[in-house]
Structure formats: C-alpha cells, structure tokens
C-alpha cells in the first residue's frame, strides 16, 4: 500500500514561514489534500488538489507538489496556526483503491 | 449552514457492535458522498470507507472489510457506519466527512464533530 511520510514536528517563530513536507513515491503524479486539526476538534480542509484554498482559509496557506514531495507552506505564521497537519492522497495504484493519510505533523509556534 | 452532526459517545464491550449516525444539513445530501475516518487516542487519521449518497455504492478499507457496513437514509439525509466484533483497538473518535458522490479523489470538505467510541470490558 502507498505510504506518506511526514516529519513528526516542525517549529517556527511567529511571523516566519513554516514548511511541512509529505513524502511519497512519485507523489507529484497524485492529488494531495491538506488538513489542519487543533486539539479536541475535527480536521479542517486547508488545501485541496495540491494548491487550491477553500473559501475562508487565509492566503497565508499555500501548497505545492512535485516529484516525491508535497509541501504545505504557511507564511507569516500566527499562534493560532499551531495544530496538527495531515496530508492525504487517493491511492488508485493497487487493486483496492483507498484514501491514505500521512502520519501528521505537529506545528509548534515558538 | 452546511454541517454534519454525529450521534453521541458510545461505550461498548469487546465483541459488540456500534452504529454511528451522521446527519447532513444545508446541502443536497444525494449530490455527495460520505467518508468515515477514525482517530485512535493520540494517533493519526485512518480512512475507513466511503459511501455514495447518490447511489449507495461503497468502498471499504481492506483491513475493515467484513466488519464494517456503511449505509444512508436519503429520507432523513443521514449516513450510518456500523462496526462489528469490536476490539479494544477500535477505541477511537469516529468522524464522518463530506466528499464526492462518485469514487473520485475529491477532498473531504466538511467534517462532523466526531463520535467517541470506547471499547472496554
């Protein structure tokens, strides 16, 4: 089955840029979605189809996807961005297509 | 507004079954599908399966096949997830999420609030 690899944690100072990676074999050929989850809350979609932003999500959130790595970039990080972030892809390569999530990255705002 | 509202917390004994509901409002239920995702305490997200509210087609995660059944009631815009033969490692928060009505790579754009299921003797 398809495996997505995320760093367990990323730390960034307020006002700086955070980059959260999601590694997978030829992930650039797949569509990647990103979710933000704050403690005790349900996940929220922040980026879909690699780089599109749902309404209501700040422009500070952006995404890219190429080769073996997809990246979620958060510019001008704020304290309220502290959360767990998960990448997701649809794996249609096997005989049993399924959704796959990365293990999640905890973003800490210093 | 568009929302998914799930049923309340459950406590079950090993070997029992649980059925979680997810009531949709604010949109045309049959124009979308519902995926179910669970999250064990302190762990990441695990996709469980998908059902089309349009035609009832389903696709389950391989590890849960045979133990999980997903259904919908279009008259009440409600999706259901039943998990049988519960084990302690099924203890988790269970989420429903809105997605495509066809088996397609659309994102999960609306999520329910989650339902805690505890399996304990």
Radius of gyration of chain A: 13 Å
Q: What does the overall shape of chain B look like?
A: globular
Structural classification of chain A: mainly beta
Supply the helix-strand structural class of chain B: mainly beta
Give the beta-strand count of chain A: 9
Write a structural description.
The complex is a heterodimer of chains A (110) and B (121). Chain A has strands at residues 9-12, 18-23, 32-37, 44-47, 61-66, 69-74, 83-91, 98-101, 105-109. Chain A is an all-beta fold and 110 residues long. In chain A, strands 1, 3, 4, 7, 8 and 9 form a 6-stranded mixed β-sheet that branches. In chain A, strands 2-6-5 form a 3-stranded antiparallel β-sheet, with no helix packed on it. In chain A, a hairpin with a 6-residue loop joins β3 and β4 (44-47). Chain A starts with 8 loop residues before the first strand and ends with a strand. Chain B has 121 residues and is mainly beta. Helices cover 0% and strands 50% of the residues of chain B. Chain B has strands at 3-6, 10-12, 18-25, 32-39, 46-52, 58-60, 68-73, 78-83, 92-100, 110-111, 115-119. In chain B, the strands form 2 sheets. In chain B, strands 2, 4, 5, 6, 9, 10 and 11 form a 7-stranded mixed β-sheet that branches. A 4-stranded antiparallel β-sheet of chain B has the order 1-3-8-7, with no helix packed on it. In chain B, a hairpin with a 4-residue loop joins β7 (68-73) and β8. The radius of gyration of chain B is 13 Å and the shape is globular. Chains A and B meet through β3, β7 and β8 of A and β5 of B.
Features:
A: 110 residues; mainly beta; six-stranded mixed sheet; three-stranded antiparallel sheet; 9 strands; 45% strand; B: 121 residues
